[in-house]
Amino acid sequence: MRSFSVPLFLLIGSLSCALCPAAHADWTPDKPIEVVIPSGPGSGTDLIGRHVQNILSSKKLVPFPVLATNKAGGGGALGLNYLNQYQGNGHYLYVTSPTLLTSFITGTTSVNHTHVTPLAQLFNEYVVVTVGANSKIRDGRMLMDLLLKEPASVSIGFATALGNANHIAIAGAYKAAGGDPRRLKVVVFKSGGEGITATIGGHVDVNVIGAVAAIPHLQAGKLRAIAITSPKRQPGALAAVPTFMEQGVNATSGQWRGLVGPGAMTAAQTDYWDQILGRLVTTPEWTQILERNSWEPRFLRSAESGKFLDSEFQELKAILGSLGLAR
């Protein structure tokens, strides 16, 4: 998956837009805003959606209440189908990740980024490979050795769909170690929370999740992190987690997080959200959330987000094709 580099002109343009006064007042909400979360409570995606909801509300960035709705299932299909019932309606925000693209490429859903309205890219996060507290798997190198000896001997869980960023992360590491990712024994969960529960309970051997969902369980001693997919160790709560790279596996991977709206939104509506989300990412509360969760800030407004998704779609299509997952 692509490294997290952004052309300087995009960053400058996005930040300048974030800080400038409103240029358009053609559209403003006239009823409550709904943040649609395509995963279950307690998942990383859920936490992101709740953070967006809370800041929009507490900082009074919008004139009406902000609600959050969980629509988990079908690798994002349930949430996307719900979102697109409201074509052209600027009152809906959908929390998205590479799953928006990968589920379409693998044939899980019939909706991709061209069927919705890109609104923003918010940040990037890396993927953590975890095991139960009492697991025999000591580290990422041992995991790779077990898989190379017998791929079916280790069950690997992730949410919420085949071919998503979590799947790509572990498949990429295994491929770099010399294995065939198509032979991995994988279990797909409806939400990150379900996968965590199954790992703690010993129902799967390994769980591959975003950093934000892993941190509370690592701190509580219920899970152990044996590898992170970043190119170097991360600060804060993940400082002790070794990278795959330092364990002799030449693999890095991550996932972006953003927001989209229903298809057919107007330019006035996207202008409105460019302004509001630009203000959201400059709040002290948002900065603290990024730092606490080891998230890398990366704000792109609507137009740049659309271009990014076009490019990312082609790259992910090639990656999933090489893994035998593209349909």
Any overview of this molecule?
The protein is built from eleven helices and ten strands. By secondary structure, it is an alpha/beta fold. The protein folds into two domains: 186 residues, 3-Layer(aba) Sandwich (D-Maltodextrin-Binding Protein, domain 2), CATH 3.40.190; 122 residues, Periplasmic binding protein-like II (D-Maltodextrin-Binding Protein, domain 2), CATH 3.40.190.10. Strands 1, 2, 3, 4, 5, 6, 7, 8, 9 and 10 form a ten-stranded mixed sheet that branches. Helix 1 crosses helix 9. The longest helix is centred in the C-terminal third of the chain and has 21 residues. The chain is globular and about 60 Å long.
- By secondary-structure content and strand pairing, the structural class works out as alpha/beta
Percent range for helical residues?
25-40%
How many helices does DSSP assign?
11
Which outline best applies? globular
The assigned CATH architecture of the largest domain is: 3-Layer(aba) Sandwich
Poorly predicted ranges: 2-24
**DSSP summary, beta strand count:** 10
Q: How far is the N terminus from the C terminus?
A: 18 Å
CATH class of the largest domain: Alpha Beta
For this structure, the CATH topology of the largest domain is D-Maltodextrin-Binding Protein, domain 2
The number of domains: 2
The CATH superfamily of the largest domain is Bordetella uptake gene, domain 1
Strand content: 15-25%
Specify Rg, calculated over alpha carbons.
19 Å
Q: What is the arithmetic mean of pLDDT?
A: 90
Main β sheet profile: 10 strands, mixed
- Could you state the order of secondary-structure elements as H and E? HEHEHEHEHEHEHEHEEHHEH
